[in-house]
UniProtKB/TrEMBL annotation:
<dbReference type="InterPro" id="IPR010921">
    <property type="entry name" value="Trp_repressor/repl_initiator"/>
</dbReference>
<dbReference type="Pfam" id="PF01371">
    <property type="entry name" value="Trp_repressor"/>
</dbReference>
<protein>
    <submittedName>
        <fullName>Trp operon repressor family</fullName>
    </submittedName>
</protein>
<dbReference type="InterPro" id="IPR013368">
    <property type="entry name" value="YecD_YerC"/>
</dbReference>
<dbReference type="InterPro" id="IPR038116">
    <property type="entry name" value="TrpR-like_sf"/>
</dbReference>
<dbReference type="GO" id="GO:0043565">
    <property type="term" value="F:sequence-specific DNA binding"/>
</dbReference>
<dbReference type="InterPro" id="IPR000831">
    <property type="entry name" value="Trp_repress"/>
</dbReference>
<dbReference type="GO" id="GO:0003700">
    <property type="term" value="F:DNA-binding transcription factor activity"/>
</dbReference>
């Protein structure tokens, strides 16, 4: 866990996020919280992570998502050396869809 981001303010933000119950509530909250470009960037990274876990190539990912190879590489590094946050979220989405 990155101690630099573990602050009371960030913890409160994350607590607020997990209180949201529907996708519509998330849309409302995140549209108030962040810019459209910030939200799109986060969603792009998550889609890149999902595609990397599906063993898609960088070229396939770049073409489908518009992500740069630098972004794809950064997400790949997080998947390989991070805190497994992407994998946890991807797994939970898959379980919900089954």
């Amino acid at each position: 866990m990155n101690k630099k981001i573990r602050t009371p303010a960030v913890e409160t933000l994350f607590e607020a996020i997990i209180q949201l119950k529907t996708v519509d509530e998330c849309f409302d909250f995140f549209e108030d919280l962040a810019t459209i470009n910030e939200i799109l960037s986060l969603s792009q990274r998550f889609e890149v992570a999902r595609m990397l876990r599906q063993h898609k190539t960088y070229l396939e990912i770049a073409e489908k998502t518009g992500a740069s190879t630098a972004t794809i590489s950064r997400v790949n590094r997080s998947l390989n050396y991070g805190n497994d946050g992407y994998d946890l979220a991807i797994q939970r989405i898959q379980e919900k869809q089954e």
